[in-house]
Fold Acetylornithine/succinyldiaminopimelateaminotran sferase.
Amino acid sequence: MTNNPDSKELDSRYFMQAFKRNLKIVKGSGSYVWDDEGKKYLDCVAGIAVCSTGHCHPKVVEAICSQAKELIHVSNLYYVPNQGELAEKLVEISGLKGGRVFMANSGAEANEAALKLARIRTGRSKFISFKDGFHGRTCASLAVTHKPAIREPFGPLQPYCDFVDYGDLEALKELAGRDTAGIFVECIQGEAGVIPAPEGFLKGIREICDDTGALMITDEVQTGMGRTGSWFAYQNAGVNPDIVTIAKGIASGFPMGAIVAREGLSFNPGEHGSTFAGGPVACAAALATIGVIEEILPRIPEKSERFRNSLSALNPRVEGLMIGISAGEDKCPGVQQRCQEKGVLVNCAGHGNLRLVPPLTISDSEIDIAAEAINASFD
């Protein structure tokens, strides 16, 4: 089906037109993908921070194939191969000693699980999130997502959520109280265009949560799994959340999500569940992915600096291998298109910001190729 020349026509006829696309990708290897006409692209979108180990990393492919030959699915009524091993590893890299894991199939589902856990363990119903934040498109995750264009058509939404300006601790203090179940925050706002948290902001949230009894929930769907040079971006700020949500880069493109909750914070039997979550193949892919990231994690800061220096004329916001460049609402689509014509894939995030989230395995020479194309496209 992938190479069917009529697949674009079939898509337009039978698939709900919820996405805008102009390129058909049929193959990927490392940092590169190829379209249906054989053109090669350096992929600095990487499935939007999903293909953390590049496309079709041999160790991940081998783990998936080996497990698929043994057992593809078994209900969570039984012990699932690789699930306990992955849970142990996620607790270890999260730094939340004594924590526990619940697995999901996506970032939105991970955030749904965090919402449910916060409500049932605190006995409270309200949340606070931040303007320009993004936490998913299911109804509950959309309830804590600010963007009016995707939120308002589906209202009224639950749970109830107040929104404050990103970085405004004073406004947060005024709103947070004994009825607040949790405060949802991205350590770096990805969909907004790679906007880092102001200095001291995450520590301030931690203090407010400690004072009010609300749970601090860090959405690391885009920033986690080594993307910022640490396993999770909150580790760069020296704070620990009560719950961290994970997806995207966790399994190199195999659909998966998870939450890790601190010690003493857990679902009881019957309070949550999922048919497919934490399946044998997904867990095998995630374990292999973590193994690859462990090897390359020490080099992320060095690659980050190479991007920063190569794109310095554009004043980029660089956090590990998350790069945002202000282009402007009118200019960004043109820059994105010119990069594509030059064989480099990037994308426009919110507010006219160009976003790069390349594979963590990207090489120095590939960084130079990307930077050259981006600089030329702005010129």
Notes: The CA atoms of residues 310 and 372 lie 8 Å apart. The longest helix spans residues 280-296. The chain has two domains: 20-56+301-378, 60-295.
